[in-house]
């Protein structure tokens, strides 16, 4: 899908499909967050505070996963 096709699709109310190919597929929590950001009703979209907290939480989880992968879960 070209960027023009994607923009036209969004204008029609369609959402972009979740990517499942490429070097890193889009994780479910991020795609679900994108869907809420695209809600037609602004009052149903996440606030900037929510987005900041979501990002902070995901970064924390990523650090834990890296520690588990690098040093093993017994050392956490």
From TrEMBL:
<protein>
    <recommendedName>
        <fullName>Serine-threonine/tyrosine-protein kinase catalytic domain-containing protein</fullName>
    </recommendedName>
</protein>
<dbReference type="Pfam" id="PF07714">
    <property type="entry name" value="PK_Tyr_Ser-Thr"/>
</dbReference>
<dbReference type="InterPro" id="IPR011009">
    <property type="entry name" value="Kinase-like_dom_sf"/>
</dbReference>
<feature type="region of interest" description="Disordered">
    <location>
        <begin position="1"/>
        <end position="25"/>
    </location>
</feature>
<dbReference type="InterPro" id="IPR001245">
    <property type="entry name" value="Ser-Thr/Tyr_kinase_cat_dom"/>
</dbReference>
<feature type="compositionally biased region" description="Polar residues">
    <location>
        <begin position="1"/>
        <end position="18"/>
    </location>
</feature>
<feature type="domain" description="Serine-threonine/tyrosine-protein kinase catalytic">
    <location>
        <begin position="7"/>
        <end position="52"/>
    </location>
</feature>
<dbReference type="GO" id="GO:0004672">
    <property type="term" value="F:protein kinase activity"/>
</dbReference>
